[in-house]
Amino acid sequence: MSNEPSRKQITHDRIVEVAARAIRRAGYHGVGVADIMKEAGLTHGGFYAHFGSRDALLVEAMQHARRDTAQALNALVAENIGKGMGRFAALVEAYLDDRQMGGAECGCAVAALAGEMPRQGDAVLEEARESVRLLIDGVGRALPEGTQAALAPVVAATMVGALQLARTLGGKAGKAVLASTRKSLVDQYEPGRSG
Hints:
This protein has about 200 residues and is mainly α. It is built from 8 helices and no strands.
């Protein structure tokens, strides 16, 4: 028995990958089934062979986006730790990296979609909530020992908001928002450990 994915699974995964990029780029309402299928190189009619509904696709796209973001973020955090940063500073520096300003399509889905999340159907909303919970948990694990766990949502909200503002402002103004937020958070929670 082969462990190779079936052709149907490969196609399914391609659709989900395209949708994960698209929701971060255009938001939930900016994603149409026909557009996703076209971008994936498939016909609109094939959609229901893979998904029961548009919301089912959005749930899987959120899961895919979360895995992609976690993988990229973990690699940057490890790189920053290798440069001598503490875990919290490494996370803040990675999440608020200047390159995130132009990378909404491949960046954090929470930052890209936070304003739209509460208006989604139950299944999509629950998946969005899970993404937020996992982000907060990750921040909580990175905060230095002895820091109040109740601060994790505050720090996560600060990071998400800073990224949203930086993307909106763009250019030098956006980079200034990221730089000042990085410095403020690291100075407050892990002094002497910034990059």
